[in-house]
DNA sequence: GAGTGGTCTAGACCACAAT
DNA sequence: TTGTGGTCTAGACCACTCC
């Protein structure tokens, strides 16, 4: 019965979200400000508290708001620019470009962890680890050297895989579903063995991605991926 | 009354989420499979449909599930590993490390767009652009050369800023709220002028971030940020 | 038409923060 | 103690898909 001049069929919780985003955009509500309580908004919009709750909860998960139980709802810090690098499985990435992927297995061994590795895995030095070195080719041009150490406790069958068919990445995603990862991206000159595998000059810059993946049962894998700087880059976009 | 052997104080909607994630992880439910309906789950867990709805809705926004009204709820495609690089304002980033930020303005000018730049901005060649080159120091060590071109139509007051106080990034975030960006990260050897500003060897690898930011009114800015490879990296984590 | 998800209500009890 | 957010219920009506 009550006609409220609402434009279309936008759900109420969405209208409340839009209203809040608008107030922030207009500068009426600034970073750190308290915004009206659930009850106040439910009265203002003449809706139930659950509906307001959903709007506020979603804006919180979208990092627009912070909520503190017992205290109130606050405008969050302005978001930093974030760059989302989607690190796909390299084989799939290459195929997606319509190119041919091929890999060479240069090393597959059991080896004892040195102190540095043990520390990264959270294990004691001397603990057994799996180690593989694989070179990935795109149309027969070397594009990545993947130097990977794997925790046998997490992926006991790692050594049994045929890495010409399945990439370590693909296998680990199935064997030890990842819960998260730490990574870094840097530019440096690669050691001689790496430059040889990539067939690049010894002084040529490499783009290096180091990644440590966490699964349920601990650190699953520590990998260093070397790419020739002049023929590889990470790219993408966000909005 | 009903004791259900629940471990702790985990909310019901969270337990349902965990249950679903577990079924997927165990392989009981595979990509594309239909999972039980809201009603079925609400009976299975002896909770109200709203609680199940919240669990499913959140998993959908987390890209674990797809929902189709009138049809059902499906297991989504397995996610790619995604690396979230948070590119903060460099001044803030340095201060967050407890270090001192300082910048040197090496160039601030109006200049006509060459063909390449014009194309990036979506303007015609010869269009006027603002251009700045700033070197950022962390504890008096050069850490970034920021070579930036700005669209005057979007940020007309760019030339009036005092870039020893406000970074271009800070100013642009306010003047032209960004809607998105395209970026790439690569490793290469910098031109002589850059290596001099960074005070590094001429053959030393640089980590280069190129970023094009979009605002409401078009391309706001095109920037190339050069970092010495041996003393700078992008890093972070995700889960 | 039966079944599914999408949304909403008007209460309720709780944990926590501020006072 | 009061006010806040966190969660949950047992219904309801709707839009959409599928048969």
Automatic annotation (TrEMBL), chains A, B:
Gene3D superfamilies: Chorismate lyase-like (3.40.1410.10), Winged helix-like DNA-binding domain superfamily/Winged helix DNA-binding domain (1.10.10.10). It holds the Pfam family GntR. InterPro entries: Bact_HTH_transcr_reg, Chorismate_lyase_/UTRA_dom_sf, His_ut_repres, Tscrpt_reg_HTH_GntR, UTRA, WH-like_DNA-bd_sf, WH_DNA-bd_sf. Keywords: DNA-binding, Transcription, Transcription regulation. SMART domains: HTH_GNTR, UTRA. Signal peptide: none annotated. PROSITE patterns: HTH_GNTR. Residues 10-78 form the HTH gntR-type domain. This is Histidine utilization repressor. It comes from Undibacterium arcticum.
